[in-house]
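Review this:
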Amino acid sequence: MPEQYQKNKAMKKLILFCFLIIFISSVDAQSASAINSKGFRQAKKGNYATAIKFFTKAVQIDQYFTDAWYNRALAYSKLKEYSRAIEDYTKAIDLRPHFKMAYNNRGADKNELKDYAGALKDYTKAIELNSGYAKAWYNRGIVRMNLQEYEKAVSDFTKAIELEPGYKEAHINREIAETKKRTNKAFSP
């Protein structure tokens, strides 16, 4: 009987320990979420440096909190800290591989750093994840204009317009790309 008592006592301790671990993890996740929300509110007010502090605290509490990584990347982008934003978008993508907006936004920051090949790859991935994502088509068109691939740019802007007929910037940039395409043909040998 004492042996059975010891086994029951050990089992109770193990169950209590598991419960405590689950409870502590739950509290941390709730804390990370609450802190992320505070950062989000600061970002909405334009207080990006303060928002970054909250998002940083959230990922310190829960390193798997994809939204906090993504939100911190957005804040870094607003402060034009593109390399840091790219790192955080990459972490968010590692945690959520089908995160089309993270690919799109990472592409935008790569474009800002004139990494056109990297931006093109990210926009293409965002389009693969959601072919109805007009913003990714538009952004890829912008990169193709930067690469002087005007015919492909026209095609991407046209697709963005098909998806969102009122997409004013896509209409404007399609006209610019068409003009540059004609100009290049006129001056080609």
